[in-house]
């Protein structure tokens, strides 16, 4: 097995540098690796910090009225999380948890920021009305009045906005009072018609600024195919240069922003492509990353403001005599202790929650350990899911798709237990899918694992599906993230025995609506596929009723030779970005 540089991306530094390699050489090499991925070397825009924002706020030219300050507030990936919740942080080399979010506290925070600067726009980057019990049970409708109460100015559809189908997506987004943009979603029933306006222009602070929107073009592959039925997507490179030219030359916008829901890897790649020349900022979304200092590509800076209404990205821009004089960015926590609950929003949250309250508060189990899904390779939450599937179906292998849904659930300090409610089940599993079983050969499994590793760690960022490896029970997989495509999987054991490439294994996963019967979790040509008369939620509820209190933890089911089990992001080479 080859030896590879270790780079965990989670705050650890020199202790992960291989023996015999100096820190200077190590940093030089990972910078070179970034160029090999198709990215220019990316650096933090160091001037963009909290101190700079405070300096701008105290600027004499602004106070004297000689200059104007424009403020952009950016949320994204709210995923239906409307109440205060536990949030994961990485501090001093270990997990930390704090209460964050809640729409009533978000409203107070936004109102205070609006008072500080009336020249403000509130933007959302998508994936709002999917990811919680109330979102699923109302098919997104419960979120619409809450978003309108916040008075958003501009919104972008995300990859999960398609979850209830095209018709419901249009109804939900149509209910927003805010403008909608997206330049790469086309109505398949109307030839080449765009479903939304491709861009939007605001006259604010004495200048024009323009926004172009892009959803992830991989959405029909990442999500169940039926969700995107009737919708076509294209890559930004197909039309972004055209819209930049319109905004810059025809509309004479002083600044151009791209609102993107494509994931940090794709957004960093876009920032360094010649066809993005003219873009000032890519306001990113999808991977729930928390960028605290904008990352500088060749042509644009990139930000992403976390998820679950726990954070707001705040960009201040100073304009003097029609020219941009200064700018500062900071990521702000939606801290319920700092911002009291807004009474009007509190009442509205209670109102939209009431029809579903009894069912969502129903306790279905208890946990003794923290349930969370922030790590790239393996998570306690997915171990719970695959354990339940293994118990029920008793196949050789069970699979859970890799993503970062669901806020953490912490046991109470006194009792040592936490209630798992129906609402939390929806946060863990936002789609209640049918379960499918099948048979596959060892060679099929190896090929599929290589493909899933490529989906997560592809050196071409445009080929990455979000950024989380597939999760499973019944297998132990060792991989090398930094290897080339098709050469990452180092070893696989099934039931503690080395995989036999010619042997047939039984496998369980959720069914994806619209996939061929012989496809299971993106694995094609499986044998003896059977769609079981079982739903994923029912299996979890049965398992929790039988085994609570549960205590899932990291077990080394997926191990990387060049990263720690606590890997939190795969976008680290050439940057000093850390998820924290």
Would you kindly provide a written description of the structure presented here, covering whatever features stand out?
The protein is of the alpha/beta class and 580 residues long. It is built from 16 helices and 28 strands. The strands form seven sheets. It has a seven-stranded mixed β-sheet with strand order 1-14-15-13-12-10-9, covered by helices on one side. Strands 7-6-5-2-16-17 form a six-stranded mixed β-sheet, with helices on one face. A five-stranded mixed β-sheet has the order 22-19-26-21-27. Strand 12 (255-261), helix 10 (264-271) and strand 13 (281-283) form a beta-alpha-beta unit. Helix 6 (143-149) runs antiparallel to helix 11 (343-353) and helix 13 (380-393) crosses helix 16.
Low-confidence stretches: 1-48
Strand content: 25-35%
Helix fraction bin: 25-40%
Derived from helix and strand composition plus strand pairing, the structural class reads: alpha/beta
**Span between termini:** 32 Å
How much is the average pLDDT?
88
Instruction: Count every helix, treating DSSP H or I runs of 4 or more residues as helices.
Output: 16
Total strands: the figure is 28
Shape: globular
The largest sheet, given as strand count, sense and whether it forms a barrel, is: 7 strands, mixed
The side-by-side strand order for the widest beta sheet comes to: 1-14-15-13-12-10-9
Q: Using the CA coordinates, give the radius of gyration.
A: 23 Å
Overview in brief:
With 580 residues, the chain is of the alpha/beta class. Helix content is 26%, strand content 25%.
